[in-house]
Write a structure and sequence with these properties.
alpha+beta, Aminopeptidase, 3-stranded antiparallel β-sheet, 2 helices, 3 strands, 40% helix
């Protein structure tokens, strides 16, 4: 999964020239939270329904 995420992030920030990439995951999804952290995402918000938002700029 991390290879796919790296490709998607590279495409978004490089090819599409996005200023940021956002991700939302459940607070209990420890594997996704670890992956986002390894990829450089930072938590930006606590959302309803026990979800958390992350952003990479």
């Amino acid at each position: 999964m991390s290879q796919a995420m790296k490709l998607a992030i590279g495409f978004g920030l490089g090819t599409m020239l996005l200023s940021q990439v956002k991700a939302i995951t459940g607070r209990q999804n420890a594997a996704a939270i670890r992956l986002l952290g390894r990829l450089g995402f930072r938590q930006t918000a606590n959302l309803a329904n026990d979800e958390v938002a992350y952003s990479l700029t």
